[in-house]
Amino acid sequence: MSKKKFSRGLTVFLAIACLIAGCAVGVLGAITYDALTYHSDEPPRTVVSGELQIHFLELGNKYTGDCTYIKAGENDILIDAGSRPASVATIKAYIDQYVTDGTLEYVIVTHAHQDHYAGFSVTDGSIFDLYEVGTIIDFAETNQENKGSSNMYGRYLLERQAEIDDGKTEHYTAKECIDQEKDVFDLGSGISMTVLDNKYYHEKSAHENNYSVCTLFTYGDDSYLFTGDLEEDGEAELVARNDLPEVTVYKAGHHGSKTSSSEELLSVIKPEIVCVCCCAGATEYTSNNANTFPTQAFVDRVAPYTDRVYVTTLCLDYDKGTFTSMNGNIVILTDKSGVSVVCSGEDKVLKEWDWFKQSRACPDAWK
Fold it and tell me: Max alpha carbon distance in the chain (Å)?
């Protein structure tokens, strides 16, 4: 099967889709965005340089989702592509500032939830259509049913297979990485990527989130942990099966939910910097204010370890679809001078935001 290419007509389609979805644009700050003010030719900009760059992307709408772009030496890596199909144009506009050859050396798809893999599941316009991919690593288990092109999981399988059939792409599930001892990837320049083991690569869970592919990046003395949407029991298995280090950066599990970032995990990894990918305060999943992302329970658990917590986006009015940036696109830069944080929005940590002061109780550790 020949690889599908990105056409001019598709460009127009994606731009229109983003207009409908209400994607955020520009160098985001205090500006409010909705479906009527978005312009697809003005993507958010955070152009940086560094030997290891980790970019936590805003996804251009009121929904919570994950997409992390990593530049490790000469390697371009994408972990997830949420939150909605219309986010593809926002993702492409951002990463094309760095991906100059049309190739992603690695794509990691953590699990089969829309807010993580929607961008891989678009017929004639997925991330797989837009880029050549060297290696795909994805979830070994799912509770989703394959209904072909009529549902997102079926479309994902079709899009993934088309990429593999092109003949230039290797594919492994996380389980295959572990079983075949292909779990450590040398990215050059002293940077490595490790697929961590977990019980739920090998057996079923009632929670789709527990199938998340978990990865650890290491560069010198610094470590960077990604756990997808693991729930508390999945995190316990992660701790039991891996010799986890204390980490410089932790992408908050499950968008800062109350059911992830457990004390069992945090007490081992003791994060210095925590990045939360969410639309803070959005009532997408709950009307209980304390449980909107990032939750009060998450804040209380992480506070003893660090107050350097950054959040991508703020929901202003979920029903109206209005939102703005908090930290915006959050970039972690590591080079010989150390680790730094660069934001396309404001660089305040979570406890300094008015939203936090009005919506969360400040833990004693942050006072």
Answer: 59
What ranges do the domains of the chain cover?
8-366
Predicted pLDDT at 335: 86
| Whole-number Å distance between alpha carbons of 97 and 190 | 24
**Cα(66)–Cα(61) distance, integer angstroms:** 12
pLDDT tens for each residue of 280-326? 999 999 999 999 999 999 999 999 999 999 999 999 999 999 999 99
- Asked if residues 162 and 2 have their Cβ atoms less than 8 Å apart, the reply is no
Query: Do residues 265 and 241 lie in contact, with contact meaning Cβ atoms separated by under 8 Å?
Result: no
pTM of the model: 0.89
CA dihedral 278, 281, 287, 292 (to 10 degrees): 50
- 248: CB partners within 8 A, 6+ apart: 222, 223, 224, 271, 272, 273, 334, 339
Both tokens assigned to 146? 């394959």
For 224, the 3-state DSSP assignment is strand
Helix (H, G, I), strand (E, B) or coil at 282: coil
**8-366: CATH number:** 3.60.15.10
Burial class (CB in 10 A: 0-12, 13-18, 19+), 324: buried
* CA dihedral sign, ordered 281, 316, 252, 153: positive
Distances (CA, A) of 340 to 249, 276, 333, 343, 347: 11, 16, 5, 10, 11
- Please check whether residue 271 is in contact with residue 238, taking contact to mean a CB–CB distance below 8 angstroms: no
pLDDT confidence band for 3 (50 / 70 / 90): very low
Residue 131: C-alpha distances to residues 159, 239, 250 (Å): 12, 34, 27
Structure tokens of 314? 């703020």
Residue 17's pLDDT band (cuts 50, 70, 90): very low
Angle between helices 8-21 and 87-95 (to 10 degrees): 120
Type of residue at 263: E
Cα dihedral 253, 258, 259, 264 in deg (nearest 10): 70
The C-alpha atoms of residue 27 and residue 329 are separated, in whole angstroms, by: 9
Contact 351, 307 (CB under 8 A): yes
Residue type, 300: D
Strands 273-280 and 249-251: parallel
